[in-house]
Amino acid sequence: MPEICVHLGERLICSWLPLPIHPITPRYHKQHCLHPYLSMKRCDLRVVWLPLLLAFLLVPSLGAQQRTEADFVIRDFFFRSGEVLPELKIHYVILGVPQRDAAGHVSNAVLLLHGTGGSLNGFFSENYSVLFQRGQALDSSRYFIIIPDGIGHGRSSKPSDGLRTRFPQYDYADMVEAQYRLVTLGLHVDRLKLVSGISMGGMHAWMWAEQHPEMVDNFFPLVCMPVAISGMNRLWRDLAIYLITSDPDYQSGNYQSEHGINQAIAMFELLMDASSLVQKNAADRDVADTLYKIWMGDSGKKRDANDLVYALDASRNYNPEPNLERIRARVIAVNTEDDFINNSDAKLMATLMKRVRRGRFVLLPESAGTHGHSSGGDPSLWKQYLEELMR
Q1: CB–CB of 141/64 below 8 Å?
Q2: Residue 363 φ then ψ, to 5°
Q3: Are residues 336 and 217 in the same domain?
Q4: Residues 95 and 223 in one domain
Q5: What is the pTM for the complete model shown?
Q6: What is the DSSP string of 15-83?
Q7: What is residue 167's DSSP assignment?
Q8: Whether residue 265 is found in the same domain as residue 155
Q9: CA-to-CA distance for 108 and 218, rounded, in angstroms?
Q10: How many CB atoms lie within 10 A of CB 258?
């Protein structure tokens, strides 16, 4: 009898059953079947649904998720830089089932967007994925949840696929355009209940709010600001790019090893968490020195230098501030008091939010248990505001 395994966050649950071996999240190729809700082509139901039934029996909380993973390919994608990619692949995951109104339009779609250097997998962490359970704010039995990998990230097209520095110099506008095409052309969704994102994903949400004001009901940007990247946020990006590209072994992006990336990633991870949390985890000199050695030795092992340089520089043209009056949807923007990357100015955000007719700003105090920029991935800190928005 074959062993059937089901992924639950970072854990793998396995069981011996007399069933054919198939992944619990089937990838729909032409020879298999297309997206089950967007195509009437026949599928091998035993291949697709028996593993899903097994997941429901083993892990009840996954039963409602109906997870599908696939790629959307955009032909001849024109970037703002003037460059063209013959095929741009956008990888994505979908949870739940679309509901349609009387006119046949999907009425329960949600779009979630990840941060710089991350991927859609971040939304399936033990912390975040609780939001998809029954009765939670993003209950996947109620919502049709779309979670893409951005350009240059995860399993979407990126420099490390082979083009390296010949990959187009994408920016946030390109990333948002690709998301829009996935939603509208790939999944045939013309209305979104919510767009939410963390850090870079939150900045993309601000851009969606301005570029598609009639298409989205609610926005929930986390740990970001609707202003041009400047100050500390720009300086650390410049330094990280310098640490990578100035390394002699970088060789203009044609490197054989990842030397400079370790230093850049170590700095990036240090900035992600609040100084109070770092102090707690490295309370004395010896522990701090040991932590430093671990960071420097392991930080870049699962990263690609070109991918990170491109991702950090993609924010160069971001600036939704001049057009905040265009936003018509409800917005709740959440930042944290101890976010070193944004160093949120409550007065500035309060002023900006006055220009968003249905906007509200929430600044979480450090006393609430926040942990810097990475608080954006911790729903226990802010889910009550998301629940308020989704009511």
Answers
A1: yes
A2: -110, 110
A3: yes
A4: yes
A5: 0.82
A6: EE-SS----SS-B--TTT---TTT------HHHHHHHHHHHHHH-GGGTTT--EEEEEEEEEEEPTTS-
A7: S
A8: no
A9: 12
A10: 21
Pairing of strands 68-78, 84-95: antiparallel
Q: Write out the residue range of the structural domain in which residue 241 sits.
A: 231-314
DSSP 336: E
- Nearest CA to 83 among 187, 147, 157? 157
Q: Angle at CA 20, nearest 5°, toward 16 and 23? A: 85
Task: Tell me the mean pLDDT per 10 residues along the chain, length 391.
Answer: 36 34 33 33 40 45 70 98 98 98 97 97 96 98 98 98 98 99 98 98 99 98 95 88 88 80 71 65 83 71 88 97 98 93 79 96 92 93 98 92
Q: What secondary structure letter does DSSP report for 6?
A: E
Tokens of 129: 């994925």
One domain for residues 204 and 352: yes
Question: Which amino acid is it at 308?
Answer: L
The domain tally of the chain equals 3
Collapsed DSSP state (helix, strand, coil) of residue 92: strand
**CATH number, residue 341:** 3.40.50.1820
Q: How many Å apart are CA 250 and CA 268, to the nearest integer?
A: 19
Distance CA 7, CA 9 (A): 6
Cα gap 292→297, rounded to integer Å: 9
Instruction: Specify whether the backbone of 273 is left (phi greater than 0), alpha (psi in -120 to 50) or beta.
Output: beta
Phi–psi pair at 95, nearest 5 degrees? -115, 145
- Is there a single domain that holds both residue 118 and residue 201? yes
Strand, coil or helix: 247: coil
